[in-house]
Amino acid sequence: MDTPFYLIKHPLIDHKMTILRETQTANNYFRTLVKEITTLMMFQATHHLALEKRVIETPVESMTGHALATEVMVIPILRAGLGMLDAFTNMIPSARVGHIGLARNEETLKPSAYIVKLPKINPDTQVFILDPMLATGGSLNYAIDRVKEKGAKYIVYLGLVGVQEGINAVHEKHPDVQIYLAALDRGLNEHGFIVPGLGDCGDRLYGKED
Q1: Of 18, 39, 101, 140, which sits 20 to 30 A from 118 (CA to CA)?
Q2: HSE-CB for 88 with a 13 A CA cutoff
């Protein structure tokens, strides 16, 4: 049985995802699209954040407004997850930021960490893990493991493209983690890449590595 997740559907997201996938989309425009799509997805992915009342002064009179009462931490999985980070920090400037750097062994398809830098995570901190692609689920499971070791209890994953295989793998190990995607693709090819996918997201964001 396939595990449920949140597929965020909106005409602007679908439109921008189509351009994002196209081979001829240049690196600079690709970066812009990733940021824009992430921003659009945030409206649904953050709908549960708690608010608190705050008395303020407008130019006319005092009033009671609302402000975020939830401590937010954003953790991009390097390097592709960095392309989604600015959308969060622009919308929630108070968010703290951690980093997890993973490289995939192309033979075993298993992740190998080269950096894990996480600030202190309080039990009530809302953690958002960012990674554009959810393929086998190995990288995301590794990241969730590290975040939970630091004490995180509330974790949301935000990605652009995923497959059901990866969703199932994550929910089998971490059923408490909410998954948000902009697109659900057909599956994985023999090399473990998402099809139709959008290629190597890190390369398309920043250029191919030597």
Answers
A1: 39
A2: 26
- CB atoms near residue 173 (< 10 Å): 13
What's the pLDDT tens digit per position in 32-42? Answer: 999 999 999 99
Tell me the domain boundaries of the chain. Answer: 6-206
Strands 72-78 and 96-97, sheet pairing = parallel
CB 159 within 8 A of CB 128: no
Give pLDDT, residue 204.
Answer: 85
CB neighbourhood size of 51 (10 A): 11
Q: Is the separation of the CB atoms in 204 and 31 below 8 Å?
A: no
- Helix residue ranges per DSSP H, the chain: 11-21, 27-45, 82-91, 138-149, 164-173, 201-206
- Mean pLDDT on 133-148: 93
| Architecture, CATH, for domain 6-206 | 3-Layer(aba) Sandwich (3.40)
Residues 6+ apart with CB under 8 A from 118: 75, 98, 99, 100, 146, 147, 150
Residues 51, 69 contacting (CB under 8 angstroms): yes
